[in-house]
Design a protein that fits this description.
Strand content: over 45%
Distance between the termini: 65 Å
Number of strands: 19
Radius of gyration: 26 Å
Helix content: 10-25%
Structural class: mainly beta
Amino acid sequence: MKNIIFPLLALAMLVLASCEKEIEFNGEITKPLVTVNSYLIPDSTVRVIVSKSRFFLDSKNYFERIENATMNIVVNDGYTETLKLSAGTYVGNYKPQPGDSVALLIKVPGEDEVRSSAVVPMPSNIISIDTLSRKEIERYPAEMYNDSVISWMTHYELEMGLRIKDPAQQKNFYRLSILFNEEYTNFDFSNRYYLYFNLQGVTNETSGGSLLGLIGEENQKAFHLFSDDVFDGKDVIIRFKVNEYKMERKPGSEDPTPSQISYIINLQSLNRATYLYLKSKDASGDVVSDFFTEPVQIYTNISNGIGIFGAITNNTKILYMNR
C-alpha cells in the first residue's frame, strides 16, 4: 500500500505546483489621494489626521502622514482657526458644541484644495435605563484543587431596556455601546472593557410591549449602529441582552471582590456621514473572509480626497449592579 501512496502524493504535489502562476498587474497605478480622518466631539479639541492613500499592491504596511499641509476650520461661517501640527496630528484650540457647523479646508502643496463639513449632532435623549429581566443560564465548576472544586462560575443573561425620546421629523443616527466596569476601592484599581451584546429591537412599552421593528443584526457586537427609521419621533425602549458571569469561591480562597460593578451605556448621536462611513466599514469587514463577495465601497465625505470628517456626540448613563 505504501508503494502506491507515495507516487500518488508526488503526483498531487506536481499538479498543485503546476497550477501556480504569477499574474502581472496590467492596470493603471493610481496616484495617492489625500486621506482625512477626523471626528468632531463636543468639548474636545479638533484633531485631524491627514495621510496619503496606499496602492493595494504597495509593499508598505503603513500610511504616510502628510505634514506640510495648511489646514483651517470655519465655525458657523464666522470663527476661523488654523490647526497646528503636533506629533503627526493637526490640532486646534476650538472645542465644538452640539449644533455647530464646521467646515474643514486643507491645502496640500501640488494638490487641489480638500474640503469637507459637518454639523455636530445634539445628544441623544435618554430617559432611563433599566434591567428588564435576569435569568441564570448555567452554573459550572471553574477551578479544581486536590480533586476538589474550589470555585464555580454562574452565567447570567440580562435583558436591558434603554428608554429614549427620538426627535420628530428629522433623521437621526445612533451607535450603542456598553462598557463593563469593576471598581476595587481597596486596591485603587478598575477593570474596564467593552461588552459584546445582542441588539434585539424596539418596543413602545417597558414590559410586554409590541415590537415596532428590528434596528440591527442580532449577532453580538461591541458597537451597534442604527437609525430611527422604525421609531421616528416616538418614546421607545431599545432592548438588548448582555451576558454576565459571577464567580463564587469556597470560604478561605476568595479573591478580592469589586466594591462596585456598573454598566456604562453610551448612546452616541452621529451625523449622517459618520453613520454611513461606519456602516460601510462594518460591511467591508464582514466580507473579508469571503472571496466570492464583491468588495464594499467605503463611504467618504471628502471633496478632492477620501476619508471621513464626521461628528459624534456622546451621552452616557450608568447602571449600577448589585451582586
